[in-house]
Amino acid sequence: MECTKPWLSLEQQVEQLASGGVEVGDRDRAAALLQAVGCYRLTGDLYPFRKSESYLSGDGRTHMRVFSGYRPGTALHHAQSIIDFDRHCACL
Predict the structure, then answer these.
(1) Residue 92: pLDDT above 70?
(2) Model confidence over 19-34: pLDDT tens digits?
């Protein structure tokens, strides 16, 4: 299987988050966080903050449609809080 996503520098990854609606704040700190945990982990922790909507399928069941952008007010510190919490719990 071939990877179809282009390589992005840390600065480009920060810009991609910002263009998706994430308030990144200090871009150097954002790049440092990305370098420390990786884009995959960071976007995974931000997943609950993605824009979404519920809908009914043809059989009457409720489903959730998740979009690529983030809800207004989503900030990088939300992911940082989750990462800090996970690290604290792992040490217990």
Answers:
(1) no
(2) 999 999 999 999 999 9
Cβ neighbours for 33, distance < 8 A, ≥ 6 positions apart: 42, 76, 79, 80, 83
Would you kindly state where each structural domain of the chain is located, as residue ranges? 10-90
Burial class (CB in 10 A: 0-12, 13-18, 19+), 41: middle
Identity of the residue numbered 43: T
Of 15, 10, 71, the closest CA to residue 46 belongs to 71
Judged by DSSP in three states, 12 sits in helix
Q: Which residues contact 8 (CB under 8 A, 6 or more apart)?
A: 16, 39
Q: Cα(67)–Cα(89) distance, rounded to whole angstroms? A: 30
